[in-house]
Design brief:
Layout (H helix, E strand, L loop, with lengths): L1 H19 L2 H38 L2 H16 L8 H14 L3 H18 L7 H12 L6 H9 L9 H22 L6
Helix pairs in contact: 2-7, 3-4, 4-5, 5-6, 6-8
Length: 192
Amino acid sequence: MLNYIWAGLILLSVICAAVTGRMPQLSAGVMSGAAGAVELVLAMMGMMCAWTGLMKIADAGGITLMLSKLFDPLMRRLFPSCKKGSPAAKAICMNVTANLLGLGNAATPMGIAAMKEMAKLNPTQTADNSMVMFVVINSASIQLIPTFMGTLRAQYGSPAPFDILPAVWLTSVCALGAGITAAKLLEGRKRG
């Protein structure tokens, strides 16, 4: 469906440019937009490579294990099917840590690994409560440092790219609280 929407927008742009005689402006806009997209992708790629590498170093240096111990009481309540120190608990911890640092894209491989590990613990083909809770927490994505958004704002000339921190913290906490509450309220319900 989204492909049809994009195709319609592109077609509508070309028709409007042709009717109003602004085809040169449309062509210039497409070219400058493409160049800007390439610059943005390169800036994001550098940031993602740096933070993904730092997460690998943190894992090899034992920081993830330390964070896993710190988060363990909370993780045991949220993910009761994951045993302490299990590969699933470690992957969940790394994912949560990456999300706390605002590294949503770098957290994705860790999130996939966590879901694979939780699937090994699940005897059915449907998501269990721990898997659903993980998706909820991942979607709410509480961020202490919104690295991706800060990089975007800096790329586009913001003099203070991280002045959005209070708003990010407030919305992240509200989204996380609402998501966890809804998941906990609904986890005992039987499927009809």
